Amino acid sequence: MTVKGKSGSPWPWWLTLMCAAALYTGLKYLLPALELNNPFLREMVELGLLLAPILTILLLLLAAKQLYDIPAAEQEDGDRQPEEEQPENQ
Predict the structure, then answer these.
(1) Would you state the pLDDT for residue 2?
(2) Mean pLDDT, the chain, integer
(3) Domain around 48
(4) DSSP character for 36?
């Protein structure tokens, strides 16, 4: 059940935006700064460098969707007057 005025998302759009920025910074700059001796972990760091922009773009698209997502109930009732104020046609 969603509250009127809220989208179906469990978190606000700006939180998704901040997660995208943190993910990109972590994968692109912080993770490579670690001195890893394990060859497998070094390959995972290289994979993180390749996936950083892709995952960030996906999160940014989700944030944009959340920002401009208007629930269907608000779209239908947006132009309508509340029932108490509607004139009766008889």
Answers:
(1) 46
(2) 82
(3) 13-67
(4) -
